[in-house]
Specification:
Length: about 575
C-alpha cells in the first residue's frame, strides 16, 4: 500500500509499497506546526483585540487598523481642537471625541485608500441636504469637497494617500449635525443641546447603521414620523429636483386695464413657477385656477391682489418657505395617537388618529390685530348650548360704543349685565357715558341660542390665552378663502362633527351633538382620556401626491423667522 511523503520543498508524492517512510528533521517539523497554528493565532489576536459589547455588531470584522493609526487618531482628537477652529464648536468637538472614546478611536469613514464605502452614504446626504430642507454648508460640505478632491488628485498623480484624520472628524461631526437638525430642526450647538437625552442616543443609532451597513437609513431614521411632516419633506424633495432655484420673479403690473398685457405677464410668471409649460399651448386662465387652488385662494381664474402677490414669489423664496416649515414641524413633537391639529394660515382643522387623517374642517382664526397664538394643549370639556361671557377688552372696545349709539343693543342681542359678584344688574341703572374704562367692573353675558356668538357648541382646552374652539352664527364667512376674522378664538364650521368624534371615539359615548343642540338645554362633557390640541403656523403643506399648497403669511411670521434662520440657511 502506498504512503504519502513530504519532501523538503513541501510537496507530497506517493512512495512505493514496502519502502521506508522518510522522516522529517526538527526544523522541518517546527515550520510545519508554525504554519498550522498561524491562522488560528491571528484570528484569536484580532477577535480579542477588537472585542466589543455583545449587543452591537462588530463592524471592524473586515477592517484592521494598526495601533499607530489608532494612536494617531486619538492624539489628533484629544489635542486637535483650538479656539481658531470655528467650523466645529467646543461642545460638538467634545461630543465627537466621546464617540471615538467609546469605539476605541478606530476610524469610521476613512482608511489608507481614502474614503470607505459607508462614507459615500453620508457624503451623498450632505450633497443633497436641500432635499431635506437643510443647507450643505452646515455640514462642512466645502471643506470635505476640498479634502476629497485633494485625495483623488494625489491618487491620479501616484502620490501616497494617507489617512486624513481631519476628514474623519468632520464627517462624524456632520453626521451628528444632520441627525440633530433632521430630528429637531436648527438648534444652537451649545452645552444644553448635548446634555439632552435624545442627543445622547444618536451615537448608538449611528453605530447600528455602521454595523449593519445601513448608514443612510440610520441617519434619516431620526426624522419625525408625523404624516404632515413626511408629506411635506417628500414634496420638498420633488420641488428641489424639478425647479431651478433663483431669485427671479416675473414682473406683473397690477392693476392693469390692459387684460392682454396682464395675462401675458401672468403667463410668464406661471411658466417661471412651473405651473405652465412654455412649449405647450395651455389656457392661462385654467393654469391660474390650478395655481390659486394650490395657494389657498378661490380658484376662479381671475387675478386679484392676493393672487398677484402669490405669483410674485421666486422659486428660491418658495424653497426657503418649504425649509422653514420643515424646521417648524421638526421642532414640534406629535406623539399622541389622537390629535386635533389646527393650521392657522390654512384655515383648517384636521383630526388625526394613529397618524391617519380622519376628517378636515374649515375654521376661522384671529385677525392680524388679535392673532390666534401657536399653542399645544389638551382638550378638557365640550359644552352644548353655552353662554358667552364677553371678554373685558371686547366689552370696552366694541360693545360699549354700540350701546352708547343704540340703547336697545343689549336686549336685541340677548345680553345680560352682571356685577363683579356675577349678579344680574338692570342695564338702565348704568350710565355708560359716565363710566371711565378703567372703572368698568361689569360683565356682559349672552344668552344661549342660535344667535349666541359662540354658536351652540364650545370646546375648552388648556391654554393661558383664554381662547377656545367654538361654533358661530356667522356661517357665511366660511365661504371666503382668507378667514382671519376672530379675536383669537377658533370658529369651527361643523362643530357637531368634531364633537361627535370626541364623544364617540374618545369618550365611547353614543350621544349625538345635533340632538343636544336641538334640545336647547345646556350639556357638558369632560373628556375621558387625553386628546391633544395643536395650533400651528405652517405656511405650506403637501398632499399624498407631493403637490405643495402655499398659504398667505397672514401674521408676517415667515419673514421674522427666516431672518432668524439666516445664520443657518445662508440664503
Amino acid at each position: 500500500m502506498s504512503k504519502t511523503t513530504i519532501t523538503d520543498n513541501g510537496y507530497t508524492h506517493q512512495t512505493d509499497p514496502g519502502k521506508t517512510k522518510t522522516n522529517l528533521n526538527f526544523p522541518q517539523r517546527s515550520f510545519r506546526y508554525f504554519l498550522a497554528i498561524l491562522p488560528i493565532a491571528l484570528v484569536l489576536l484580532i477577535s480579542t483585540s477588537y472585542q466589543r459589547n455583545p449587543d452591537d455588531v462588530n463592524y471592524f470584522d473586515k477592517e484592521y487598523y494598526s495601533p499607530e493609526i489608532i494612536d494617531s487618531l486619538r492624539n489628533f482628537l484629544m489635542n486637535g481642537y483650538g479656539e481658531e477652529d470655528d467650523c466645529i464648536t467646543k461642545f460638538s468637538h467634545d461630543f465627537v471625541v466621546e464617540f471615538y472614546v467609546a469605539n476605541d478611536f478606530k476610524p469610521v469613514w476613512v482608511h489608507v485608500n481614502g474614503l470607505s464605502e459607508r462614507a459615500s452614504d453620508l457624503v451623498y446626504l450632505i450633497e443633497h441636504a436641500r432635499e431635506y430642507g437643510l443647507e450643505p454648508q452646515n455640514y462642512h460640505s466645502q471643506e470635505l469637497l476640498r479634502l476629497i478632491k485633494k485625495q483623488e488628485q494625489n491618487k491620479l498623480r501616484g502620490i501616497e494617500v494617507f489617512i486624513d484624520f481631519n476628514m474623519e472628524r468632520l464627517l462624524t461631526d456632520a453626521a451628528f449635525r444632520l441627525m440633530i437638525n433632521m430630528h429637531a430642526g436648527y438648534q444652537p450647538m451649545d452645552s444644553a443641546l448635548f446634555a439632552s437625552d435624545w442627543v445622547k442616543q444618536l451615537p448608538g443609532i449611528l453605530m447600528k447603521g455602521i454595523a449593519s451597513g445601513k448608514v443612510f437609513e440610520s441617519l434619516i431614521s431620526v426624522e419625525p414620523h408625523f404624516i404632515e411632516y413626511t408629506r411635506l419633506r417628500k414634496a420638498n424633495e420633488l420641488f428641489i429636483r424639478s425647479n431651478h432655484l433663483t431669485n427671479y420673479c416675473a414682473p406683473i403690473k397690477f392693476p392693469n386695464k390692459d387684460t392682454v398685457v396682464l395675462f401675458g405677464e401672468i403667463r410668464e410668471a406661471l411658466i417661471n413657477l412651473g405651473y405652465l409649460d412654455e412649449n405647450i399651448m395651455e389656457s392661462t386662465s385654467e393654469a391660474l385656477k390650478v395655481f390659486q387652488r394650490y395657494h389657498g385662494l378661490n380658484a376662479d381664474g381671475k387675478p386679484g391682489m392676493n393672487t398677484i402677490e402669490a405669483l410674485e414669489k421666486s422659486t428660491l423664496y418658495r424653497y426657503r418657505v418649504l425649509a422653514l416649515n420643515l424646521d417648524r414641524l421638526r421642532k414640534n413633537h406629535f406623539t399622541d395617537s389622537s390629535l386635533v391639529y389646527i393650521n392657522i394660515p390654512a384655515y383648517r382643522l384636521k383630526i388625526f388618529e394613529s397618524n391617519r387623517l380622519v376628517d378636515t374642517l374649515r375654521v376661522i382664526v384671529g385677525n392680524p390685530a388679535t392673532p390666534t397664538p401657536v399653542h399645544s394643549g389638551n382638550m378638557e370639556r365640550i359644552i352644548a348650548n353655552p353662554l358667552w361671557y364677553v371678554p373685558k377688552s371686547i366689552a370696552i372696545n366694541e360693545m360699549i360704543p354700540k350701546i352708547k349709539s343704540d340703547s336697545g343693543y343689549l336686549q336685541k342681542n340677548g345680553f345680560m349685565i352682571l356685577d363683579k359678584n356675577y349678579k344680574l344688574v338692570n342695564a338702565r341703572s348704568i350710565d355708560f357715558n359716565r363710566i371711565p374704562e378703567n372703572e368698568f367692573d361689569y360683565t356682559f353675558r349672552q344668552n344661549r341660542g342660535t344667535e349666541n356668538s359662540l354658536g351652540q357648541v364650545k370646546f375648552i382646552f388648556s391654554n393661558p390665552y383664554a381662547i377656545y374652539l367654538h361654533d358661530t352664527p356667522g356661517k357665511a364667512l366660511f365661504a371666503k378663502d382668507l378667514r382671519a376674522f376672530s379675536h383669537g378664538c377658533i370658529r369651527v364650521e361643523h362643530p357637531d362633527k368634531l364633537a361627535d368624534y370626541i364623544l364617540n371615539e374618545i369618550n365611547a359615548d353614543t350621544s349625538r351633538m345635533s340632538n343636544m343642540i336641538a334640545s336647547g338645554q345646556p350639556r357638558e362633557f369632560t373628556l375621558a382620556s387625553r386628546l391633544q390640541v395643536q395650533i400651528t403656523y405652517i405656511t405650506c403643506e403637501a398632499d399624498e401626491n407631493g403637490k405643495v399648497y402655499f398659504y398667505k403669511d397672514i401674521y408676517g411670521n415667515d419673514k421674522t423667522e427666516l431672518d432668524a434662520l439666516k445664520p443657518f440657511m445662508g440664503i
